[in-house]
Records
---
Amino acid sequence: MSATAPATLEERLRRIGGHLGAYQVGVADMTPPAVRSAVQEHGGSWLAAFPRAVSLAFRLQDAIVDQLPGDHRSPAVARTYSFHIYSSVNDYLDEMALLVARAIQEEGHAAVPVPTSVAVDAEGFSGALSHKLAAHLAGLGWIGRSCLLVTPEAGPRVRLVTVLTDAPLAADAPLDRGCGSCTECVEACPAGAFTGRAFDPAEPRSARMDVQACADYREAAKAVSGVTICGVCVAVCPHGRRGGRAATAPSEAPADA
């Protein structure tokens, strides 16, 4: 009888993620100069030095997200969505990342679980690392016109967390896909925050999104619902709404940035 080959560290991490409830798990190569520069901007040289990132996604509850386009200012819908995402799911992802990081450390490598939602800039708009960037590089999805990560089946109905590491993990390839001609999120945004431009890693986020307009709209919504959420762009994406059956064209921007 032939002995079963021992699982690689990549396989072990995917199993851990799956056991903990991750919807997707991927490994990103963080060594390209443009990627290091993007991480350096907010996370500093400490985080930019890590060559790999383990990206984990958790799928949101469709029954909640489906209510957002028409009722995102309803207190019952808005507060349920806010608690579901910003309390329950974020906390769960942070715990998931901690356990993945522990498994990496037990193998003798360094690992840093980057918090899901901790801002490091004065405006409160940027974290130490773009989880969307890591997830895109790890092959989980692509960056859509909404500036959200879009997965093939769940669309943007996911939340993300990242574990940076120096472990010599085999990196996954980014998806060579994009939104094609779809502009549903652009047209549905009640704040008019999206310009409609496709993702281009050479352009700043401001070329695609007015972050302040989004923040102002969500702050105004708080006067009605009690929480600063909207989520319309998450709900209207055809990929999540139709179970991933929406047709897509090749990405209009390079898939490796």
---
Amino acid sequence: MNKTSPPERQEKTHQPGSEDAMHPAPDYMPRFSGSGRLSGKTAIITGGDSGIGRATAVLFAREGANVAILYGDDNETEDAEETLDRLREEGAKCFAFKGDVADRSIAQKLIADALDRFGGIDVVVNNAAEQHYQEDLTDITEDQLTRTFRTNVFGSFYVTQAALPHLRQGASIICTTSVTAYRGQPTLIDYSSTKGALLAFVRALSANLASKGIRVNGVAPGPIWTPLIPASFPAEKVESFGTDTPMGRPGQPNEVAPALLFLACEDGSYFTGQVLHPNGGDIVGG
């Protein structure tokens, strides 16, 4: 993100916001040539139309994977189509599925469609999320609280539950949690709570599935320049976003995606129940 750019604010008409409308545009393309680390594998990526999800989808495609992305609604169709274009340029077999990740039937249909098209599933990335800036706990409505938990937590449960009967030894489940799970965020209280729940989900499920040879891990990004930021924060917060990290800037989606690739492929074969922290140097506990 260019610190000299004017603050950008997208209207809060939908989450996660539009990547196409962001200025400056996030950097999502992989930096290096692929080496076949996911050749012949199939990956499911929720929230794969933009942000970290898009960067991960393109990187996985470059590494040889078939990719299915889930996106939320018509507001995200343009981003989803752009992502599919990039995946096809990488030579991937791919498709996009529109639907609410918080709807269990959508998760089931997504998995069924992927199985029909690709014949199996090897990697599940639970990445879809929403957040809403609120300075006071009492301003968080029941509807907002319910919606944030359903998208961020229930959606991860539903997709994982639908995929699990079809995962074989060597499969990988990855959840996008957040630095806010470790140190909180005073204006994202409900969001931080959901990310803490996902951290516990990773640790509990990893222990549950270890004997089956299925690995469960997470990434906990710090401030990353994605559509969620201009879609949820006030303009003055967007302008200074990420400047309080030790590296003095927000991260880009393609600086997070390699962490997911590591956990998805055989390079991470001795990792389960772990969380990687692409956060610009923020020291977190846990």
